[in-house]
Amino acid sequence: MDPAPLSIAFVVLHTSPLDEPGTKDAGGMNVVVRAHAEQLARQGHRVRLITRRSSPEQPASTELAPNLAVRHLDAGPARLLAKGEHERLIEPFGRALAAHLARHPADVLHAEHWYSGLAALPVARDLGVPLVQSYHSIAAPDDTPLSAGERPEAPGRLEGERLLAREADLVVAVSEAERATVLERLGASPERVRVVPPGVDTELFRPCIDEECAEREAWIAHGGLPEVLVAGRLHPLKGFDLAVAALAAIPAERRPALRIVGAPPPDGDDYARALHEAVADAGMLRSVSFDGALRRTELAERVRQASLVLIPSHSETFGLVALEAAASGVPVVARAAGGLREAVVDGVTGLLVEGDDPAVWAAAAAGVLGDAELAGRMGRAGRESALARNWEASTAALLETYRELLG
After folding, report:
1. What is the C-alpha to C-alpha distance for residues 377 and 374, in angstroms, rounded to an integer?
2. What CATH topology corresponds to 210-387?
3. Which fold has domain 7-199+390-405?
4. What is the mean pLDDT of each run of 10 residues along the chain (407 residues)?
5. Which residue, 117, 126, 196, 127, is CA-closest to 403?
6. CA 206 to chain centre
7. Region(s) of the chain under CATH 3.40.50.2000
8. Which conformational region is residue 113 in: left (phi greater than 0), alpha (psi within -120 to 50 degrees), or beta?
9. Between 20 and 30 A from 341 (CA), which of 1, 219, 258, 355?
């Protein structure tokens, strides 16, 4: 007999699971949470995505699909806030969460990011409900390089993450690299940390088909530029300034176009402005486009039109864009850092690059773009790899951790 369905509450304080990745403070975490929630709901589990009301127009409850709903709780002003402002909302959000769960109990609480974990921890203890914690990114002290992780946006983050590593019933990491950081930097017990790699929607992210491929090939054959794509929040951690510098280091007669997909977070206008200035200073205004944030369907279309996806992030717990590019049959050049070492098979689905030298990145990108046989081989290998890393498999692994906690 199949086990009884579970009631699962995903807690996401600082960003709505409904936000498009690349907008506000939404990123790969939003994709992972939404995909897991949808898969669990399809299997008959009752799933809630619990987040903060950030606009007066947001209803208290929205039904997304059978067994899947979003709950907006009141905590702080009903408007968009910079990420760091959410620390002062941990306690009020926790009180609202406790009131909600008193009326609508859950079998498991799964907190995403440290704000959510600190809000959910006392509630989980009071209700006797197991707490699963996911970080998705782990802060590094200000005196360490960006390769160690993102800067703590609020004073309590470093200690808050350590507290959750000790007190949560289970920590779910998205890669072996993140697991190692949770153990070494945060001091978690090895037996309470599990790795659940994310998946990819291989129907949405797919290679170009005959007419699409022919159109791209005809464009390039008639003098159009091949495209290099970068996607994510316009934030220093993502290293898009290095992407601009790398393409500027390719001779103008061989330089591809650069498509930048994403928008700055609420406190990120300075970095976005600096990127625009760097493009102008490099004389690349005609070959660089800033597309802003795109819907997932639009992003998938842009990825499969690209000849190469570049991921110069200083730190990534996994690097979901790399897997989406692989599923699209597009080779990747990525930094040899964190979970990107697991998302990209070096020399097979793409290339991993060390350091920040634009000339090295330029050589890697130009090498793939200039070798059609190599690019095709990497694209096919990427697609094959992605087909085995779907959301069904990822969700099955996550559900197993929940069952383990519940005995």
Report:
1. 5
2. Rossmann fold (3.40.50)
3. Rossmann fold (3.40.50)
4. 89 86 68 95 97 93 95 93 91 97 97 97 97 93 82 91 97 96 96 96 94 86 92 93 98 96 86 96 96 93 96 93 97 96 97 97 97 97 95 96 94
5. 196
6. 19
7. 7-199+390-405, 210-387
8. left
9. 258
